[in-house]
Amino acid sequence: MREVRRGGERFRTDGEGTRTWHSFSYGAHYDPDNLGFGALQAINEEHVAPGAGYDEHRHRDVEIVTWVLEGALAHADTTGAQGVIEPGTAQRLSAGTGVEHAERNASQLEPLVFVQVMLRSEHAAEPRYACVDVEGPGLLETVDVAADARLLVARPDGGILSVPPAPRTLVHTTRGPLVVDGLELGAGDEVRTDEPVERVAGHGEALLWLLR
């Protein structure tokens, strides 16, 4: 099975100073045929106005991975982690037995865009936090997520990248254009497949999920 989902077809939620595009069923948007893929339960692209954001709220039993596309994200959580996340840094918050966090636009002038991914978790202990800077072109390692999910950032930089085989693969394009095994993708487009992805090419960027 190989499925292409276009960015413009995603569910959308509008809030106060926020607009979110959902790759899977989320919140008020329910589609029984689109509840997740492998360990992935949510891929949300968040657009946050200057000074806006999400006040402290709680999660548990989930892995949360955040990737900023534009602007600066002010993050604080009850593990004691706090700071500003900018493009090029992958953040992971493993909620475990329970964690509260707040996420807001760090700027009063510029917009914020970020992708937040939620995955099924096997971490049943105290919450954990990690950040990794991801630099340069190529196929790049990011934060350690879970035993059944590995996240790479693909930046072909005009070349062709060979992708490690996995039982399931999801490619989420954060910046186009990209060509994934002959399929042309723009920003927000996804490929989901139960077959290995072989090549990613072009001048864009993608979050590449290798899943069991």
Explain the layout of strands and helices.
Blueprint: E1 2-5, E2 11-14, E3 18-22, E4 40-48, E5 53-59, E6 62-70, E7 73-77, E8 82-85, E9 89-94, E10 99-105, E11 112-120, E12 128-133, E13 138-141, E14 149-155, E15 160-162, E16 168-175, E17 178-180, E18 183-185, E19 190-193, E20 199-202, E21 205-211
Antiparallel strand pairs: 1-19, 2-3, 3-4, 4-11, 5-10, 6-9, 6-11, 7-8, 7-10, 9-12, 13-14, 14-21, 15-20, 16-19, 16-21, 17-18, 17-20
Short synopsis of the structure:
With 212 residues, the chain is mainly β. It is built from no helices and 21 strands.
Report on the architecture of this protein.
The protein is mainly β and 212 residues long. It has no helices and 21 strands. It has a seven-stranded antiparallel sheet, with no helix packed on it. The model has no long low-confidence stretch (mean pLDDT 96).
* Number of distinct beta strands: 21
* Spatial arrangement of strands, main beta sheet: 2-3-4-11-6-9-12
What is the averaged pLDDT score? Answer: 96
CA radius of gyration is: 16 Å
Order of helices and strands: EEEEEEEEEEEEEEEEEEEEE
Q: What is the CATH superfamily?
A: Jelly Rolls
Number of domains: 1
- Backbone structural class: mainly beta
What's the architecture, going by CATH?
Answer: Sandwich
Silhouette: globular
